[in-house]
Write a structure and sequence with these properties.
Blueprint lengths: L16 E3 L9 E5 L11 H6 L4 E5 L3 H7 L6 E5 L2 H12 L8 E6 L4 H11 L3 E5 L2 E3 L14 H13 L4 E5 L2 H5 L10 E4 L7 H4 L2 H8 L10 E5 L5 H7 L5 E6 L9 E11 L2 E8 L2 E7 L4 H16 L4 H8 L10 E4 L6 E5 L4 H14 L4 E5 L9 H12 L2 E4 L9 H9 L8 E2 L3 H11 L5 E5 L6 E4 L2 E4 L2 H10 L1
Parallel strand pairs: 1-2, 2-3, 3-4, 5-8, 5-9, 6-8, 9-10, 10-11, 11-12, 16-20, 17-18, 17-20, 18-19
Antiparallel strand pairs: 6-7, 12-13, 13-14, 15-16, 21-22
């Protein structure tokens, strides 16, 4: 494609691809040199050119540095003001504005993004997903490095999925993704707000700043509708910030009424080991639904998904049929039932105080015996939430084992000490080795008990001192139960 077709830059040069990674450069590529946290992309321009890059894009604020770094290189130099913010729109034009030709639903919130996106991909026809556990069609996911990939990757993924026949795409939109303009250039048809609680304060600094970032999704150009979880305490703030031309659909399990638009509500809720049964009310219709999922918070996720289905033209009765076939997402309330002599074991990604509380509260409704939990906290992340998670574990579980999560470059002892600061009524056991902790938990649990393995969910590694060691909670549980 000619550079002038996607950039406001007069040139006859044709570009074969865009990349932020010099290692991915090929013949005829345009290399995008952004300023990173630790290094500037211009440091890798020479390597990109050696691999075939014919042009380098950089922020005009770094023009002086670019002149210095690219002085003797035979390459087209293109300065762009506010490049990081504009990159998504540039990439969208390069890939033919893929989001204009498909229905894109963005999901934001502290918890529930992955479940909602995966559920949507299961129930909407010709669907794809971009998020934490991968991108692609259900059952054919390719790995992603971040919940919301970089701006170039997002547009390339959208274009690929469109070309593969996808008509509906669900994207997890993280606060980091919004703050770093990764979804700029994406035209969203709908947006979902799941919930809001403490997370990522190491990045955002305050809860107010964190919420303000989340609100950016609902100000997206061309947005047609927004689905809001009314049962969350900040729902009114979210609704107040949504432009008047955007239709609002509120969902509730507690009988609340949306301040704007229509309300989808669930009543007569029954939780059991086979899942959740409830009556759903929409406009003048009523329907009985059963979904094979565990946890009241999963009902909130299902209602958000149902609202999108209804706005996508799927009738309530047909929607109910599709929802009965939902499958749990890997590492999200993933259930492992032993035989009659073994406990129920649940693996979940819950890694925030709010998520841990919701999971434990939900599992209490499904547990006949005692409820135990195995969890830790990540190193080099928001340390303030550690004692809060300890407090939640003590309040809602009968016993707890504290173990390693992803210590990263922090001492395990420091992390555990912070978590223990939240305990006051009983002593939690400490077993640093995660596999041993899980084994100990399952071994001590009786047949009527439930054990929650929390914090890592789908992850297939443990990060310790910069090295990612292979480890998966679900595989560990399967091996122990098989023994």
């Amino acid at each position: 494609m000619n550079i002038s077709d996607f950039l406001d830059f007069d040139s006859d040069l044709n570009v074969s691809g865009l990349t932020l990674n010099s290692n991915e450069c090929g013949e005829g590529f345009l290399f995008v040199a952004l300023k990173g946290t630790n290094h500037h992309g211009l440091n890798y321009a020479k390597s990109a050119i050696a691999k075939g890059a014919i042009a380098v894009l950089f922020d005009s604020e770094q023009a002086e540095l670019a002149d210095e770094m690219l002085a003797d290189l035979n390459v087209l130099k293109i300065p762009v003001a506010d490049l990081a913010e504009k990159l998504g729109e540039i990439a969208a034009r390069f890939y033919g504005e893929p989001s204009h030709k498909i229905n894109v639903i963005g999901i934001t919130g502290t918890n529930g993004k992955t479940s909602c996106s995966q559920f949507l991909a299961q129930v909407l026809e010709n669907s794809g997903v971009i998020g934490t556990i991968g991108w692609g069609k259900v059952g054919e996911l390719k790995q992603t490095l971040n919940t919301t990939p970089d701006a170039l990757a997002v547009q390339k993924m959208l274009a690929t999925l469109k070309n593969e026949g996808c008509e509906n795409i669900a994207i997890e939109v993280s606060s980091h993704g919004l703050a770093q303009s990764r979804v700029n250039g994406v035209q969203f048809k709908g947006a979902i707000f799941t919930n809001f609680s403490r997370d990522h304060l190491d990045y955002h600094g305050t809860m107010a700043a964190y919420l303000e970032t989340k609100l950016k999704l609902f100000d997206a150009p061309q947005l047609e509708f927004a689905v809001i979880n009314l049962d969350d305490e900040v729902s009114e703030q979210i609704i107040a910030a949504i432009p008047e031309n955007v239709e609002v659909i509120g969902v509730t399990t507690t009988g609340k009424q949306s301040l704007r638009g229509q309300t989808l509500r669930a009543e007569n809720i029954e939780l059991n080991l086979s899942g959740i049964q409830f009556d759903v009310f929409w406009q003048n219709q009523k329907c009985v639904l059963h979904v094979p999922l565990i946890g009241l918070f999963n009902l909130e996720n299902v209602l958000c998904v149902l609202a999108v289905m209804l706005k996508s033209g799927v009738e309530l009765e047909e929607s109910a049929k599709r929802l009965t076939h939902l499958k749990a997402v890997n590492g999200r309330m993933e259930r492992f039932c032993g035989d009659k002599n073994q406990p129920l074991v649940i693996v979940d990604y819950a890694h925030t105080p709010d998520a841990l509380e919701k999971v434990l509260r939900s599992l209490r409704s499904h547990t006949l015996g005692k409820l135990g939990v195995v969890f830790g906290c990540g190193g080099n992340r928001d340390s303030g939430k550690r004692s809060q998670m300890g407090r939640v574990a003590e309040q809602f579980a009968d016993w707890a084992i504290i173990t390693d999560d992803n210590p990263r470059f922090e001492l395990s002892e420091t992390i555990v000490r912070d978590i223990l600061g939240g305990f006051s009524n009983y002593e939690a056991d400490i077993i640093y080795d995660r596999a041993n902790a899980i084994h100990n938990a399952i071994e001590r649990a009786a047949a009527q008990d439930c054990v929650l393995i929390a914090g890592k969910g789908h992850e297939d590694y443990q990060e310790i001192n910069g090295v990612k060691f292979p480890f998966n909670d679900a595989e560990c549980v399967r091996e122990i139960l098989a023994q």
